[in-house]
Predict the 3D structure of the following.
Amino acid sequence: MVSVEQPYARAILREKNRYIDAAAASFPRHQRLTDEDLYEHTNKMLALAEHYQRIAIRIGIVEALKDQKAALPTLERKEGWDALWFYLLRRWIAERGAQAAKETAATTRADLQRIIDKAHALDVEFNPVQVAADLLKAKALSAFRAMTIARTETHNAMMFASQEGAAKAGRDNGVTMLKRWVPVQDERTRANHAAMSGHPAIPMEAMFTVGGEKMERPGDWRASAANVVHCRCVLAYKVDENQ
């Protein structure tokens, strides 16, 4: 994951700060955040998401195959894997990647708007030049948020591809695969995730219950942020011996 998330975080940081610079530069003239700046920022975030999640999804598929090969030494990689990769990328961007990029852009804009609103609320004459300078202070939040976004979205994309790749490998080889939630066991692991270490393997289409919440896999973006952000858990697979 590190090979993807670190350059992804740097790219997000550059783009967030570029947008903040652009918003600050245009504010004295318009005295508002422009839709044009936000539109450009959102499109650039979308392009970053597609580029880095393309890499993450390919890695997720490769890792799933490695894990399956350990569980099933006779595993054969049949036709259709390149097609699966492109399909998963398009599906992920449509279902999650685009939404995450838009949310990131909207969050940065909301940070800037709070600074503007605070300036309006002060019992002093509104000074657009000073507000523009204050907008640049939003960069202080960028580095932490960029790493959080990159780490979380890379993990989510990899786990999505891993599960889909494992399911295809099982179908190609005429076996039924089971999935198991594997947490990292250290002091940083959430209690609800650490508890999953003893959870039995379940069918690929089944849902885990994690702290009372239904999740298809680690990094299931439909779950709450408390169960997804900075998650390091993975899936492992085994052949269903009762099939």
The first helix runs from residue 2 to 30. The two ends are 33 Å apart (CA to CA). Strands lie at 177-182, 202-203, 208-210, 213-215, 234-239.
